[in-house]
Design goal:
Layout (H helix, E strand, L loop, with lengths): L1 E3 L5 E4 L10 H13 L2 E4 L6 H8 L5 E2 L7 E2 L2 E8 L2 E2 L5 E2 L18 E8 L7 E5 H6 L3 H7 L3 E4 L15 H5 L5 E4 L1 E3 L6 E3 L6 E4 L4 H15 L5 E4 L6 E5 L3 E5 L10 E7 L6
Parallel strand pairs: 2-3
Antiparallel strand pairs: 1-2, 3-17, 4-19, 5-6, 6-19, 7-8, 9-17, 9-19, 10-16, 10-18, 11-12, 11-15, 13-14
The protein binds succinic acid.
The site of succinic acid has 7 residues, from β18.
């Protein structure tokens, strides 16, 4: 039923129709599979927003997304990802470009994000994932020792980020913390495995470090973690429902396709814990 899609990280779940009730035994099996395979792919699902909302709760409680401008009116807990939105200056907005982990500026960041592919370009638009547990294990012992115990400050939009996020509405801003501190190395609450917990979009600095040294360290860790041997690259098919584990992965979207074609996916996240 669970078939690996690569040497690590990605796996396909076969024989499950998410429009149908799932019994306790299957639910537990799927949740165990998610601990072993931090990207789970369910093919050919074709879910309505309401069906997607029900289906993801097999894995946890829904996390309220910060920027409500992308909420679907008919089911506001589900947001959309689209290549048809533009920044106020007219530049096209490609959500999710640049490696990141979702909403790490929350005190309890979402454990998982789920995308469901509704319309896709003929080619391109893959999502890349890197496995931060493997990247952590492969660090030299001296580097592991150096970063264990460090804490980073996460904000909605880091002034160091190359990617600019869409501005929050006034109401949304009231629900988003100004800044939170999270460990630079976190332990997965279910598997006990450690991983580097980075986010170039959100990290503003490292506690007790000069800015220049902190940015150099973060760049070094990112360059290490985004090497091809830690990557699973997902090539989308319409109907895919893909769920990934934000606690031990970074991911990024690719705007490498014909922008005359629509790329449109539903998006929802699941609540997580305080990173430790
Ligand atoms: C995201 O970062 O949530 C979007 C990823 C994608 O569109 O491929």
């Amino acid at each position: 039923m669970i078939t690996p899609l690569s040497l690590h990280t990605g796996a396909e779940v076969r024989g499950v129709d998410l429009t149908q009730p799932v019994d306790t035994a299957l639910r537990e099996r799927l949740n165990r599979a998610f601990v072993e395979h931090p990207v789970l792919v369910f093919r050919d699902q074709h879910l309505s927003p309401a069906q997607l909302f029900d289906a993801v709760q097999l894995f946890g409680e829904v996390f309220p997304q910060h920027n409500t401008r992308f909420a679907l009116p008919e089911c506001p807990q589900i947001h959309y990802i689209s290549n048809q939105d533009f920044y106020p200056d007219g530049k096209r907005y490609i959500p999710g470009e640049g490696y990141h982990t979702d909403h790490s500026n929350a005190a309890e960041p979402p454990k998982a994000t789920v995308l469901h592919a509704v319309r896709l370009p003929d080619r391109g638009g893959d999502t890349q994932f890197v496995n931060m547990q493997l990247a952590y294990q492969a660090l030299p012992a001296a580097m592991r020792q150096r970063i264990d115990g460090m804490r980073a400050m996460h904000v909605y939009q880091s002034r160091h980020s190359e990617r600019k996020l869409m501005a929050l509405s006034e109401t949304a801003r009231q629900n988003v913390p100004d800044a939170v501190l999270h460990p630079l190395v976190r332990t997965h609450p279910e598997s006990g495995r450690r991983s580097i917990y980075l986010n170039p979009i959100r990290i503003e600095g490292i506690v007790g470090m000069e800015e220049e040294a902190a940015l150099a360290l973060l760049d070094e860790l990112l360059a290490h973690a985004t090497q091809p041997q830690y990557e699973y690259r997902h090539q989308w098919r319409t109907g895919d429902m893909v769920m990934w584990d934000n606690r031990c992965l970074l991911h990024k979207a690719n705007g490498d396709y014909d922008m005359g074609q629509v790329r449109y996916l539903y998006r929802i996240m699941l609540k997580g814990d305080v990173p430790v």
